[in-house]
Amino acid sequence: MAIRCYENVSEAVKKLIKIDTKKTSYVIGAVDEEMFLGHIYYGALLNDYHLAHTLRILEPPFIPSLHNRERASFLDSFPMEYPAHGLGDYREDCISIETKGGNTGLSLQFVSCKIYEGKPGLSGLPASFGGKDECTSVEILCRDSHTGLEAVLLYTAFEEADAITRSVRIVNGGEESLYLTKVYSACLDMDNEDFDVVSLHGSWARERQIQTVPVSRGKFCVESVRGESSHQDHPFIALMEKGAGDEHGKVYAMNFVYSGNFKATVQNDQFCQLRMTMGIHPEDFRWKLEPGQEFQAPEVVMVYSGEGTGNMTRTFHDFYRKHLIRSPYKNQKRPILINNWEATYFDFNTEKLLDIARQASALGIEMLVMDDGWFGNRFDDNRALGDWKVNEEKLPGGLKYLVDEVNKLGMKFGIWFEPEMISPDSDLYRAHPDWAIAIPGRAGSLSRNQYVLDLTRRDVLDYVYESVAGVLRSANVEYVKWDMNRQLTDLGSANLPAERMGELFHRYMLGVYELQERMLREFPKLLLENCSGGGARFDAGMLYYSPQIWCSDDTDAIERLKIQEGTAFVYPLSTMGAHVSDCPNHLLHRTVPFETRGHVALAGTFGYELDVTKISREEREMIPAQTAMYHKYNNLVREGDYYRIASYSENHYYDCYGVVSKDKKEALYTFVQVLNRPNVHSRKICFKGLAPDKKYRIEGEDGIYTGDILMKAGYLVQNLPGDFQSRLIHMTEVL
Q1: C-alpha gyration radius of the chain
Q2: Of 8, 144, 265, 389, which has the fewest CB atoms closer than 10 Å, so is most exposed?
Q3: Does residue 186 share a domain with residue 286?
Q4: Range of the domain at 218
């Protein structure tokens, strides 16, 4: 079994729980007569469990039973598994409360543990899953004897996937109501081994840029208080051994399976001990818990790699593909789509869309997606959100006529919604102004001239669902792009009493999850693509509902190199919405060759964001070759192992990445020369991921090379003529 519990390992360690995966071990101990729950070890797989000596409990300040005079000092230095607030541990804590009397102190002691095969779901939340033959779970019950509060720590070991998940369920076992003011999902205490901390930062149109900085004294923090995981920071953090790289060094990573406010910290304390934490952001969080009630915190996925960030990346990719994404499309080729947004914006009608569809179909494109502007009085982005009725001035004959005509061309049909929003200029707002999130008596803050619907309300949830579902029932809609174009502020709900207003952020997120879950239950074959101003809600939580997410509103192929690199740092290529866009690019006014745009979009779900009726004949004639390219390589891109080889964000000249089949028989590498340079030699590229003893032929060339040669001695890529040029390097095993 992957999880074992050992009794009385030493005089001080009364219980020891060892969690093993294929390559890692995670060890927890209950210490002293008071059963303090401490973290002992996380790292490379251990064959033994005698680790009590690593806890430093036989040196000052000692454990309380030996030296109660320094209890606070013990609590402030002991490596806590789930640290609580207010009784001596001054470091970043994981849980804090407020009692009826205004007190905040909490001390959680080990009570019991339960080990079983498989993994339970988390009520109302996205979470990883696995069968009894794939994973083993342990629930550790801890209790505060003073308040009766219980924390049930859930760990699941996915043995073959080499990942561990963590979450916590809080139960008010006392006789009085209390408030949770902070509930994190995971904590990791360890010595500082001269680590760097890796995170993903950005902004709108610059999402998920990789950042590496040294761990210094104090706290490093990534966070969002925007009501979503956000463009600006990402719910991912990792500690990386100094000098580690893609293929070597120790990495400890956490990724939050949640789409709302989050906080992740790394704290370096006075003893050069590190504490890494992750969970719901405590700002504006205050959850009332009546006696007997529970609060379920979201899940954190933890990955340890002793082989650098490359192995970390591939572990996350495999784990999410197998144990998080549920869609029937997860193991299927996605239809090549064309979206009309950059082609028409709001200026379209049935005939214009059919004109695009006719030409797109003839070129091998498989789906037409109708974007914003099809409903209510929506002639620009200042009105009509919430009025989800087909505008028959634009679409004579209604949605069904349009969809049927598109289907006759052999194409699927998809549609855009922004269901979480409401425009002040809308029939819905005029009828229900109290449905918008707002502070009573205060003028609401607009963003994109829209408000956010209060999804904490049952009447709002039901209206939104029936509005969306009614449209989907009316025609053969096979794809939905679910958008969200502003973040939350002005926190106020007409539905929540004053003592529960601190629950709004989280209840809102639970509402979003409920809506998408209901939609997928009624329409199980639907392909859902989440979007939020581009990539502001590209996170593991959303992947539970949609197998792909719009990566960024920045569709420029060169900017996408950085965005897709950062996204692929954690998430599979098959999850990234990526399109060939119009040029000059509508955001940057940059012109990139059509071929390069296709090569970059290939590292994603692949589609088009342009007016196929207006592009040049030369570009139009290239589309059949690009769609054929997608069909040729997509299985490899979707299922293969991803390798970073050269990073444009680091060298500022060129980019190179690749995917290799699991059996090492096939590989595809993409080389993008961003900037040409005068008087340069060819570039030597050392590939990764090949089998050293296999022989490979590069498509279009006569030579045969061993994997060993290609990875160690390298391959010469000739300088390409001009900026923004690219090349695909496809190789297959020679038997």
Answers
A1: 27
A2: 8
A3: yes
A4: 3-323
Is 611 a catalytic site residue?
Answer: no
Give the end of a domain, one of 592, 622, 639.
639
Beta-bridge mates of residue 683? 717
Mean of the per-residue pLDDT values of the chain: 97
Quick: pLDDT tens for 227-250.
999 999 999 999 999 999 999 999
pTM: 0.98
What sign does the dihedral 702-705-709-714 (CA atoms) show? positive
Contact status, residue 421 vs residue 381, Cβ threshold 8 Å:
no
Same-domain check for residues 379 and 475: yes
Question: Of residues 32, 89, 318, 483, which has the active-site annotation?
Answer: 483
Same structural domain for residues 582 and 606? yes
Question: What SS3 state is found at 523?
Answer: coil
Distance of alpha carbon 369 from the chain centroid: 24
DSSP H or E stretch at residue 209: strand 209-214
- Identify the pLDDT of residue 262: 98
**pLDDT value of residue 185:** 98
Rounded CA-CA distance 190/252 in Å is 11
Q: How many structural domains are present in the chain?
A: 3
Given a cut of 90, whether residue 58 has pLDDT beyond it is no
pLDDT tens profile 503-538: 999 999 999 999 999 999 999 999 999 999 999 999
What are residue 137's DSSP bridge partners?
A: 116, 156
- What pLDDT band is residue 464 in, cutting at 50, 70 and 90? very high
Question: What is residue 48's predicted lDDT score, i.e. its pLDDT?
Answer: 95
Contacts of 431 by beta carbon, 8 Å cutoff, 6+ apart: none
Same domain, yes or no: 559 and 609: yes
- Give yes or no: 483 in active site: yes
Residues 97 and 18 in one domain: yes
Q: What is the DSSP string of 685-732?
A: E---S--TT-EEEETT---EEEHHHHHHT-EEEPPPSSSSEEEEEEEE
Q: How far apart are the first and last CA of the chain?
A: 40
- Residue 688's CATH number: 2.60.40.1180
**Helix then strand then coil, % of the chain, to nearest 5:** 25, 35, 45
Mean pLDDT over 141-145 rounds to 97
Two tokens, residue 239: 């500690």
Catalytic residue selected from 318, 454, 553, 655: 553
Is cis: bond before 424, omega within 30 of 0? no
Question: Is the pLDDT confidence value at 1 over 80?
Answer: no
Confidence of residue 66 (pLDDT cuts 50, 70, 90): confident
In a domain, 335, yes or no: no
d(CA 123, CA 644): 37
Residues 387 and 427: beta-carbon distance below 8 Å = yes
Among candidates 328, 371, 325, which has minimal Cα distance to 129?
Answer: 325
**Which CATH number is 355's domain given?**
3.20.20.70
- Contact between residue 177 and residue 203 where contact means Cβ atoms under 8 Å apart: no
User: Smallest Cα–Cα separation from 296: which of 171, 398, 197?
Assistant: 171
Q: What is the pLDDT of residues 673-712, one digit of tens each?
A: 999 999 999 999 999 999 999 999 999 999 999 999 999 9
Question: Over pLDDT 70: what percentage of the chain?
Answer: 100
pLDDT digits (tens, 9 = 90+) for 480-489: 999 999 999 9
Each as own residue / partner, the long-range contacts of residues 653-656 (CB below 8 Å, 24 or more positions apart, any chain) are 653/677, 654/683, 655/561, 655/565, 656/685
Are residues 224 and 364 both part of a single domain? no
C-alpha closest to that of 509 among 545, 478, 471: 545
Domain shared by 631 and 663, yes or no: no
User: What token pair was written down for 503?
Assistant: 């629950």
CA dist 584 to 51, 394, 642, Å?
61, 28, 30
577-593 average pLDDT score: 96
